[in-house]
Predict the structure.
Amino acid sequence: MSIRTPTPVQAFCIPPLLAGRDCIGNAKTGSGKTVAFALPILQKLSLDPYGIFALVLTPTRELALQIGDQFAVLGVALGIHTAVIVGGMDMLSQALELNNRPHIVVATPGRLVDHLNSESGEWNLSRVLDEADRLLTDTFAPDLRAIFAALPPDRQTGLFTATITPKIEKLSDAPPRPGKQKPVIYRDTSTVETVDTLKQYFVICPSHVREVYLFYLLCHPPESIAHLRREAPAKVKARWKQRDEDDTPILFPPPTIVFVTHPRTAAYLTILLQHLGIPAAALHSYLSQRDRLSSLHSFRSSVSPVLVCTDVASRGLDIEDVGMVINWDMPMGNEDEDEGGAEDYVHRVGRTARMGRGGVAVSFVTERKGDTVMVEKIEQRIKTRLEEMELPEAKVLIELNKVSVAKRTAKLNLENSNFGERQRINRKKGKNMSKQS
């Protein structure tokens, strides 16, 4: 993996983890937190490989799969067996994997609890080090209680996160369990929560023409990331019509992630961009796991230069050379978290400018209530001012008619597809079953 020198979080956290201490690691996205806990696990496994040695918990399926891949690469010389246990996959095959007692289990809490509730005693969780980010929220609380009830009291625990929340602060200050020392804590000492190589902007535009501004921004990206544009592959050229009737090469936008709030918006924008000649892939909770993986593969392999997604992709995903992150919707967070939206912003924009690379983050600010307030909260959180990006309105609106036609087509296609109907039916069935039980 070409690791020559440890990053600060790795240099600080690896020694105490090897010594058996609990550890909390706080560092910016892209700073190597996964390696900081993976290497101590592998080192201890090399001395005593048996059973399920480590449990890594993640808030999203995609992050779990990514961490599983990283363990596979780092532990290939040791013959490490890793099982990834996430929703959307066949439970029977996962149960067989667990019964084979893999060395490392990487899981999302909900699916792991499903297996704990149905297991027959053929496997158990013996020693643990878990990775936490969004996990310490009320959403995951019931599942975490069930998981920790199945864990040994003398477990070793590591919490790794890009942002320190009040709940993590409370954990760090809590009295240690009997026979344990207080956790070793690494804190990012920088005054800002985003990296210096990230340029952060906002664009003021009316909500009803955001699509036109998005199209212009993708076709005319900032100069600092223009070098990341790639010429469209021959197969794509044959499929997508060139916008101009000349011989100018068709250039993709730089690899771009567009964040939205709702799955329906993600599906709508994906169809819209495709009709405008920009290959795009969607990633949201309404997709099957196979489709989610297909979208990620399409984006990673540059077949689709744009990934339109909800916050399922905002945490931990490491995709090389993402040049731009666009906030179509400003992140608002949960109502019970004052800084939830600002924290989500930090994670979203952390998908670019990773490991010393440059990147651009652009947030659309509309007339909608809360957009300007959220900009202020974000600036207070990251201790950095967002710069206004002024796009040439006359040039932007040249494509208004073309984009308007694509909007109508995308909305019609979405309605005809009965988007989300299967998910609504499943949710209704789940509620009925819970009432009967």
